[in-house]
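During the reporting period the student researcher (J.K.) took over the structure-prediction task from the postdoctoral fellow and processed the backlog of single-chain submissions. One of the processed entries is reproduced below for the supervisory committee.
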Amino acid sequence: MTKSLDSFNCRRTLTVGGADYVYFDLAEAEKNGLAGIAKLPYSMKVLLENLLRNEDGRSVTKQSIQAVAAWLNDKGTAGVEIAYRPARVLMQDFTGVPAVVDLAAMRDGIKALGGDPEKINPLVPVDLVIDHSVIVDEFGTPMAFARNVELEYERNEERYKFLKWGQQAFRNFRVVPPGTGICHQVNLEYLGQVVWTNSEDGETTAYPDTCVGTDSHTTMINGLGVLGWGVGGIEAEAAMLGQPVSMLLPEVIGFRLTGKLKEGVTATDLVLTVTQMLRKKGVVGKFVEFFGPGLSNMTLADRATIGNMAPEYGATCGFFPVDSETIRYLTMSGREESRIALVEAYSKAQGMWRDAGSADPVFTDLLELDLGDVVPSMAGPKRPEGRVALEDIPAGFAKAMETEYKKAAEISKRYAVEGASYDLGHGDVVIAAITSCTNTSNPSVLIGAGLLARNANRRGLKQKPWVKTSLAPGSQVVAEYLEKSGLQKELDQIGFNLVGFGCTTCIGNSGPLPGPISKTINDKGLIAAAVLSGNRNFEGRVSPDVQANYLASPPLVVAHALAGTVTKDLTTEPLGEGSDGKPVYLKDIWPTAAEIQEFIEKNVTRELFARKYADVFKGDAYWQKVKAPAGQTYAWDDHSTYVQNPPYFAGMARSFGKIGDIKGARVLGLFGDKITTDHISPAGSIKAASPAGKYLTEHGVGVADFNQYGTRRGNHEVMMRGTFANIRIRNHMLGENGREGGYTIHYPSKEEMSIYDAAMEYKKEGVPLVIFAGVEYGNGSSRDWAAKGTNLLGVRAVIAQSFERIHRSNLVGMGVIPFVFEEGTSWASLNLKGDELVEIDGLDTIKPRQKMVAKVTYGDGTVKNVPIVCRIDTLDELDYFKNGGILQYVLRDLAA
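J.K. obtained the following structure tokens:
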């Protein structure tokens, strides 16, 4: 850690439990020139401390520190850039494998430039949790967990060998093995410390625990008072290698909570309400900080649920300050007593402690919610912000059948299923999954689901036979307390057997539906439904067979497995008939809050957490058998279809050259609003007829062994072929009624072909490419391959109405320029068809947020100069772009 210049003379010593800690005292900084900073939002105090501690006169100056104090006047609207250094980095395996691939490639690259490969090493702690690879193949049986684990290792041994190599090759890099839990829950329950410490030169410095993660739901940790958010893998790699995260001082929206949740209302209902409110407010690129008396009525798990879904409401983070509930959770989850004492003492010393008497901070803007106004809810059928009150779900589905799916006349039709004694209709629930970091970290909703299952069993209710049921907890702690309480056997009885510890259905790893059900859905064009306790319900994400996806609390997931449909109003209609022949309603089996709390107090204990996390890095017998290669650099296998040396550094010179303008560019795609990173870079199954499927077939991989895109992210050959390959993406170049999927029209041949094939044709012809899109382009997961694939296809620029925060940053990090239209302009208003030629001049002298012009030549020869704004936002980002990307910038810097 570089010694701070300490311009505000605030370096002090804090003594806790007989130990001395150096810290940068905000109260002293306020006395010494930073007037008023006690009024800052808690999250801004974390940023301020970060700058005070890292003041080096170059990336962090006295002026940048003063700009944080000046936030009290401009409230985040001044566009001030800061260099932020997180304490650590969190990764999951889908994004972590390509990050380690990049680091391995950088070692080769620096060696080629005459540098030392050992310079490519994480300088901050990095934890990679393997949670994205388990698939729900087996379900509804006692053997489901064991079989799914076996299949996971069969499919992913090559990737796991590579990660084990990385663990021994790189310093400061730990791997949490498969079968442990979801990275965000492991972060919440074990990795997060609230106050971090670093010992160097005989002294220990204490400072706020902060992290960036290669998964968008890293924001969950904000519920613990740890400032964290998702970044692209490439930005995370730069942070690992000592580069600051370049960011603008954000606006901070204060969200005041009052009251308490009513009986029968869950944290899931609350977070769906908050998500809807904040999406409507518009908080993209902003911090949200929760305050008010309602916080005292919320458990930390409830707070973490709200923090988790920040990507869905569009904010950089949803922050909760440290208070007595934080201390209670740290104690219950088995943290060391000395750390807990430090957290309380440090937070109070720094003015980062909240209690009932704390003054409200200054915010950019305010929003308010009485927790007592929240009602039971779900969100669907295709957007997380599409919250609907539970009683209105059937009407909402009927409306979607009319407006979204154009099948209103068919809503009551039902069709026989081959070999089955039941039939299927529109709105039937074919997947009911208790899944995802959002909800499985919260004992109240997991215990609630178990008690609802127990009550259903007592009344003789059964799940419908067409429902694929699964339970995938976010940590082993959950499985243990469900088992200990006797509730797991109740869940087993209605099909919710343990299937694995990982993200499963929430990220599309729902596994195949039974053949006859899948065939009926596809042959008859049924709009089947999924109900999951997840955070994303984008079309095509959960299952290729399911179009209507609903987010719900775990108890409501169980209820829908019993009801078997979303066309039934569960507040007034029976779930089914009990063993006594009488109708059973949801209200008859819903557990009380007091009963749930009694089960939590009896079964969720400190001893349980301590025991389950004692050997968190050891892994099971399968993991221990994985043999990893050794060595400073990786021995790439040319025949591997999982891990390949990417081309980013091939032939790279020690310095960057002139940036050429975009001349004679063709349009690769015209995309609509809210194109997600799932659309751009799918994580699900690989179709045999797709370019990626053909590549794997050509390399001797059978269809049964294709695995999924997410597991192939260490191989650029697969991933570039999978870019824009989502089965539901619509390229408007093919017309409003053109086919869905990754297709385009090549010009001037006018031939329809896959986007990958067209991009390769243009590459042969030496033609650069551009993409046009609508609002919120790139929302969803922090998926770096959505930017990497765009780059490798030859796209120089993306011109959209607006971008989601992480994807915009990722594009810059890969050397692709994001531009936005002026307000009121879109590709549709310009009547673009996709046969146009595009020119953008002045790239060698481009500046952040510069107003520029795209010269568009239409198919009939008409020329129009279209005003656009460069969304390279900071000077650091400009350096990355000029070097061809952030990794090239870092490599040149380390090789110098």
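The committee noted the following: The two ends are 21 Å apart (CA to CA).
J.K. will present the remaining backlog at the next meeting.
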